[in-house]
């Protein structure tokens, strides 16, 4: 109880469950959390009309949460469908930090050398191989669990004989499920995978469009040159068109120039895939980030309004040669 409570009191992120209050009675600890109606385990029954892009939105949020946890030096260690809650708007929160640990203070659940590993694999298929054998975990331990969740969740939409129609889906979860820890991608590499491109398809090459201002559903847009300043009651940031921005984020540069992200990877043949939107930049308080770092909460808020703004903006009379609008 005390150990788990420590994480809830330390962690503060929109994709991590928040503690309301806690108390002990008769030697037993109790923690009350914010309410969410269901877990990912029963999402298909509780929330109707779930689509394939909803699957992407959910798993992008999970990566957002894992990126936050990595920044805090925390490994969840038990990421699975019934440890993720979701509401009707597809906002997710990771719960149950009972097995979580800090990267500097690892917590090993399976320590007994006499344990039947094959039986453990059947009972805990979401657990990474290194965790089951009692080896040291790292942040990529949660990546394996994330990959298992994506693979199994996708079966709601994609039957086994249809998987060949979804190469990006197969590519991303096969990377995440690599047995060798060093062969798995990092969280930030996965965020840039083209599997998520459908989420960003509201973006387009706007450098060759006329400057203009617009107010759409109380979201202010101000297009100036190769950037669009967006002001909302909850946030303010600028998006820079990637076609005219030569300086890339370190992760983007690495993915664009490195053919194979790991020599031990059994998936990569021509190199780890990267999103066609990877060059779009986000400016917040004078700092620049790749657009993929933007939380799903904000993407969902601006997506529809951005598409309306796109329909209103006009192409310059003499646009640059060779530029193509993103579809």
UniProtKB/TrEMBL annotation:
Put simply, this protein is called Protein kinase
Report the residue ranges that make up the Protein kinase domain in this protein. 1-196
Source organism's superkingdom? Eukaryota
Pfam family of the protein (one): Pkinase
GO molecular function per UniProt:
ATP binding; protein kinase activity
From the broadest rank down, the organism's phylogenetic lineage runs: Eukaryota, Fungi, Fungi incertae sedis, Microsporidia, Dubosqiidae
Keywords of the record = Kinase, Transferase
